From TrEMBL:
Species of origin: Streptacidiphilus cavernicola
Pfam family of the protein (one): Mrr_cat
InterPro entries registered for this protein in UniProt: Restrct_endonuc-II-like, Restrct_endonuc_IV_Mrr, tRNA_endonuc-like_dom_sf, Type_IV_Methyl-Rstrct_Enzyme
Superkingdom field: Bacteria
Record's protein name: Restriction endonuclease
Keyword Hydrolase: yes
Amino acid sequence: MSFTQFELAVADLAERDGFTIEQACGGVNDRGADVIAVAPDGRTRVVIQCKHTRRGKSVGAPVLYALNGTARPVHGADVVVAITNGSFSEPAIDFADSQQIKLIGHYLLRQWATWGTPLAEVLCLENQPVPPVRPAREALNWSEIWSKLLSQQQQKAAAPV
């Protein structure tokens, strides 16, 4: 899975959970925002930085420094989120806690994507209407993507160096 496919999958899942997507994919000049979504209440703006990592890698604090510097002042975020298929370093976790940045690592990502826990619940957003579960766009079957990603990571880990 490419980083672009990862960003699109995150946007697709947010849309599945009733969020309105304003930006589905970042790019070179995204200024720290890969996905921008508005919660089902129509008032809560969520800015998401997506980091697709290789097996065993973690997202470090510098990624969160950049996100924190732009999410609220540039993108008008009410909720700031960093999401990865991997994990976050201890300094990143400490910084996120101090700046009220929500982190979604591989476990919460699986809970959201595979088990269907709504994003509002994953982010602990209060007073958000939870829409009935709608299937994600067929073009992005997250379960298949997740299985393929895990398979690729296992193959890379087993490959001789």
